[in-house]
Structures are given as structure tokens and as C-alpha cells.
Amino acid sequence: MTAGSDTVLELLPMVFARPKDALARAENVLGSDPTPLHASVAHQVIGLWQRDFGDMRVALRHLRRARDLAADAGSAEREADVLGTLGVALVHAGRTRQGLEAFEQGVDRGTGHTRARVLYRRAYAWWVLGHHREALEDVRRAIPVLRQADDTIWTARALTLRATVHLALGRPERADADFTAAEELWDTTGQEHDKADVVESRALAAYRAGDIPAALRLFDEAAERYDRLGTPIFMFYIRRCEVLMAAGLAREAVAEADAALGVLDGIGGQSTRKAELLLTAAKAARLADDPHTAIARAAVAVRLFAGQRRSWWEVHARLVLLEARVATGRTSGR
Hints:
single chain
């Protein structure tokens, strides 16, 4: 595949529009003796795909190579963009300190539009880490710049993220406004994976509003979209299990969380999502009157969250662990 820079750069949004096509085309670029700049983009595309849908170890290898090639090409903007992608991957791999350092470097190297994309990614990472106010601050800085650049895709992503953070903070009205604005933007694009993510987010919003039947229906719609794309999304399973528990289907939630853990372990996926799935399985097992399973899952979740420096999540996991131990007569907090 030979192409100019603009054509190669088009592979980046394609990761979340036609994921398998993007992966195949990036591999073709690497097989065509590309320039360092083009090779950097191709490695970033493969790293993105592996980060979200595959093996995290492979993702980190490709993203580090993409960063080094961008530096070789002398493109600070390209390097900053890759550092933003790498920062998210490192956080998901449980290497929080390294991830935050990558974001700092990306913000320093990038300017304008590129810096706004890095800020969005750091906001996403703050949300993953449970630092909601920091997430809102970064996304607040990013959105006006993305809008000014007329960047529909990244503006929609930023609005979707802000809505998700508002939900986490108990602000459903603000979340709904941002989800609506994001959907209007997504409807003008071919970003099929991103569109599925919005349906999933709408399902979560319906659940938080107390409409469990609507939430389950929207989750089913999102699942069909993800299945068509062939992209396993583990946050989806975490959220659907939450609704299954609310619907009184705790045993089904345990089974779904455990099945998702098996898939995640099988592909070498994100450590952050593994910890969250373990916590979800523990909560569901506790509701299903299976405290021994709850203790086993929660204890591992506590260790993972601690190692990832995710104190907000660790506290929640410790609470579930304590509740499960009380249920069996074991009250030690160790």
C-alpha cells in the first residue's frame, strides 16, 4: 500500500469505524517500506487495535515503536499524538505512573489540536482511575479546541466521555445533554464502533434513571453492533452485569463476568478491566449468596487496584471483600 500522509492518517479513525480493515491496511503499510512517519502511523493503528481488542503486550510494543519512529521523523505533533495513545495503554496495563508521564510528555510536545486530543485521552485515563474531577478539567480544556478545529469525531468522543463522567458523579441531566449532542455528531460519521459505544452509554443512563427494561434492550442493541464489528468490549460486560444485578439476576451476572474474564485472560487484555470484572463478579456473587466466590474475586481485585494506584476502586473492592467475609464470619480486614 502506497499513499500520502493524509491517506495513511485516515487509518487512525478507521480503527473505530472498520477495525479489521484498519488492522489489515496498517499491516500492509508496514510491508511496503514506509517512511518513518508512515510507519509510525501504522504501528499506532496496530497498537490501538491491540490495546482495545487484543493483547496489551503487543499493543505496548507497537506503540513504543510508533513513538520512536515519530521522533526519528522529527515530528513533535506525531510524537505527541502517539504518546497520548501510549498513555492510555500504559494505564490500562496497570502502569499508572508511566502512563501519566507519557501524557505529560504528550501535552508538552503537542500544540493546539494535537494537544487537545492528548488532553481528551488523559481525561479518559483519569476517568478509568476514578479521578472524576481531573477528568472533567481536562475534557473541559479539550472540547473548545476540538470544536474550533471542526473535528467531529474527537468532539463527539469528548462529549461522550464528559457525559459518562457526569453519570459517575450523579448528574444525569448533564449527562443526557452531552449524550444527545454526541449522538447528533456521530450520526454524521461512519464511526460504527463509536456509535455502538453511545448506545451502550445510553443503556447505562437508562439504568441510572431507573428504567431497567430500556437499559437491557439498549444493551442488546449495543451487543449486536459490537458482534458485527468483531470487537470484544469488556466495559460493556461490566455495565450489563450491573443492570443484571439490579434486575435480580445476580447468578447470571456472575456467569457473564466470569465468562468475560476468561476471554480477557485468553487474549492478554487490559489489566484495568480485569480488576473491574473481578469486582463485578464479587459483587454479583455476594448478591447471589455465594460469599466464598465473592471473597476470592474481591481479594484479587483489591490487589490489582492497589498495584494500579486506583484508590477509589480499591476502597470499593475492600468494602465488597469485607461484606463477603462478614457473611462467612470472617471479619479480618487483611
